[in-house]
Amino acid sequence: MRFPGISSPPRYRRRRRTRWTSSKVRVVTADAEHGWEADAPYDRIMVTVGAWDIPPAWRGQLAKGGRIVVPLRMKGITRSLALERTNDHLVSLSQGVCGFVKMQGVGAHDEYLWPLKGERVGLRFDDGNLADRHKLDGVLTGEHAAAWSGVTVARSEPFPDLPLWMATALPGFCNLTVDVPEGEDPGIVSAEGGRWFPFAAVVGDSFAYLSVRPAGEGIVEFGAHGYGPHGGEVAQAIVEQVQVWDRDYRGGPGPQFEVWPIDRPAEVLPKSVVITKQHTHVTISWPEVGETVQDQVAPRIQQQ
């Protein structure tokens, strides 16, 4: 068994070397951004830290038909993807919700924080394509508006694809961050008995975030709270995307991911949402309920 490389603090590297001395695992010290060319190609590459991008070395050192499992961050949402090499790109075989410590070293990628209430409440963006953040100065001190979707969910029912759908469908998508002592009012509104979620969108001088309110025994309704002169409009935009997700994708096979080299022009990629990173374009397509992932993938592979 061979590992492409391990990138971690020295104290953990020493601990792993001690633990694996008598095993067949070869431990090397290298920055994971560059992989480990000496033993390539690899049938499997497993990344155990949160990555923002897939560097050329990982794909280049993967054998034809090989697979890479990576926790990939896209617009602030992380998914563990099992990707298979197909010709010049990678195609997802499965995906799942996960959370990992972020990549360090050459492949590190910083997020951007807009403070709304000192360091306690803010909006966190995954990329630097930001408008003027000062337009939101004092936005939490003004009036707020709410919109409700009519879409309900059981309190115990997971909805893992909704945040990713919002991230791909809403311009200005970001994460709402709140860091206040327990019991202190963060200054954001949630309907009585409801709660808020850290998924938000910004449009100019206004923003809104996803929330729920009680809608019966063990049931809540999705909605959004907005702040700023156009907060109600942004909240309505979130609600509309919740309704689209509920109508077309809820209970479906989930999103399909493909990772293409950055030198492939975005306009010739398969029709889908395209997230452009440093080394790659990540495309996300959404089969509707009743359509399988294979229905979308097979024709693309045949056209290669």
Mass-distribution shape = globular
Q: State the helical fraction.
A: 10-25%
Strand order of the largest sheet: 1-2-3-4-12-14-13
The figure for the number of domains is 2
Total count of helical runs of at least 4 residues: 5
Q: pLDDT under 50 segments (min length 5)?
A: 293-304
How much strand content do the residues show? 35-45%
Mean pLDDT: 85
Query: Would you report the number of β strands?
Result: 14
Keywords:
Protein-L-isoaspartate O-methyltransferase, globular, 7-stranded mixed beta sheet, 5 helices, 304 residues, SAM-dependent_MTases_sf
Describe the structure.
By secondary structure, the chain is of the alpha+beta class. It has two domains: 10-107 and 252-303, no CATH class; 112-249. Helices cover 18% and strands 36% of the residues. It contains five helices and 14 strands. It has helices spanning 10-20, 56-60, 161-169, 231-249, 293-303, and strands at 42-46, 62-74, 77-86, 89-97, 112-117, 121-125, 144-154, 173-178, 195-203, 206-214, 219-227, 256-261, 273-276, 280-285. The strands form two sheets. It has a seven-stranded mixed sheet. β10 and β11 (219-227) form a beta hairpin. α3 (161-169) packs across α4. It comes from Nonomuraea aridisoli.
